[in-house]
Automatic annotation (TrEMBL):
The record marks H218 as: Important for catalytic activity. This is Adenine deaminase. Its cofactor is Zn(2+). The keyword Manganese does not apply. Gene3D superfamilies: Metal-dependent hydrolases. Binds 1 zinc ion per subunit. Belongs to the metallo-dependent hydrolases superfamily. Adenosine and AMP deaminases family. Adenine deaminase type 2 subfamily.
Length: 324
């Protein structure tokens, strides 16, 4: 089974570049940029990665991002992730970045996007890994900050396919960003949103109805609303599920209790993704293995996760044929 999963072609649709910052690179960048970090060793950093909910993770995640200063840092971060994709036979990836995490501390939008974009282009030419870039708004910040970020993104629309919504779900429902998403759609961006991760199922319906999203990031709490599950099946609305993330952030008590295989068998277009792999214990192969080790599942069902991801991806028909 391990070899089958290793060699299975994969497509990743839910990955935060800031969440791929491994402790080793964190130390290297801290040194290079003369930034103080509150850790004395790599082991100490890993020891701090024990979370009791989404917020306890986000606090550490935003702190880690402080070592990213120059364009080259964003390149190095992205390139290191693409090498992991190569290791895990990921052929195509659609990655998130959070510009506000950086612009709020004085790093320019250009520094961030130019470093990331240069690495993604090199990933295509040197590794044969295709990619799309999705810009997320931090939902704990206000509408005005999101509008400002959307404006900054406009001159980079050739590099960004979609906008998304991440960070603290509880207390920051999709409705808060209805006007921002409306403008983004008018400008020609596709839309996605984290919904139904920690927050209730109604956030999923609200994101679909108000933000016109093409797919739902996480969405695992859909099972609390039977009618919603039926709608997801009927309309083939994809969920980008992140199994190891959900266990680390205590969305489910154990992988055995995770509903991803149940949703797959009920006909929901579910996919497997790594979210913030440096923090949650693994990249794509590890996420597949964690699911398979906890749930009896056959090879055709495992391969269905990849077929679903191809279907849910933002590539054109021609590129979907290539991935199949
Ligand atoms: C995130 Cl797991 C998760 N949820 C919401 N926002 C995020 N940003 C990075 N990882
Ligand atoms: Zn996420």
């Amino acid at each position: 089974m391990k070899e089958f999963i290793q060699s299975l072609p994969k497509v990743e649709l839910h990955l935060h570049l800031e969440g791929t910052l491994e402790p080793e690179l964190m130390f290297e960048l801290a040194k290079r940029n003369h930034i103080d970090i509150p850790f004395n060793s790599i082991a100490e950093v890993r020891g701090a990665y024990s979370f009791h909910n989404l917020q306890s993770f986000l606090d550490i995640y935003f702190q880690g991002a402080n070592v990213l200063i120059n364009e080259q840092d964003f390149f190095d971060l992205t390139w290191a992730y693409l090498l992991r994709c190569q290791d895990d036979n990921v052929l195509h990836t659609e990655v998130f970045f959070d510009p506000q995490t950086h612009t709020e501390r004085g790093i320019s939008f250009e520094t961030v996007i130019n470093g990331i974009h240069r690495a993604l282009v090199q990933g295509t030419t040197e590794l044969g890994i295709s990619s799309k870039l999705i810009m997320c708004f931090l939902r704990h910040l206000d509408e005005e900050s999101a509008f400002k970020t959307l404006q900054q993104a406009q001159r980079h629309q050739d590099k960004i396919v979609a906008v998304g919504l991440d960070s603290s779900e509880i207390g920051h429902p999709p409705a808060k960003f209805e006007r921002v998403f409306k403008q983004a759609i008018n400008l020609g961006f596709l839309t996605v949103a984290h919904a139904g991760e920690e927050g209730e199922a109604s956030n999923i319906s609200e994101a679909l109805n108000l933000l016109k999203i093409s797919r739902i990031d996480h969405g695992v709490r859909c099972s609390e609303d039977e009618e919603l599950v039926k709608q997801l099946v009927r309309e083939r609305i994809p969920l980008t599920v992140c199994p190891l993330s959900n266990i680390k952030l205590k969305v489910f008590d154990s992988m055995e209790q995770h509903n991803i295989v149940d949703l797959l068998r009920r006909g929901v277009c579910v996919t497997i993704n790594s979210d913030d792999p440096a923090y949650f214990g693994g990249y794509m192969v590890n996420n597949f293995l964690a699911v398979v080790n906890a749930h009896p599942i056959n090879k055709a069902e495992i391969a269905q996760f990849t077929f679903n991801a191809i279907e849910a991806s933002f590539v054109n028909k021609h590129e979907k044929e290539r991935l199949r």
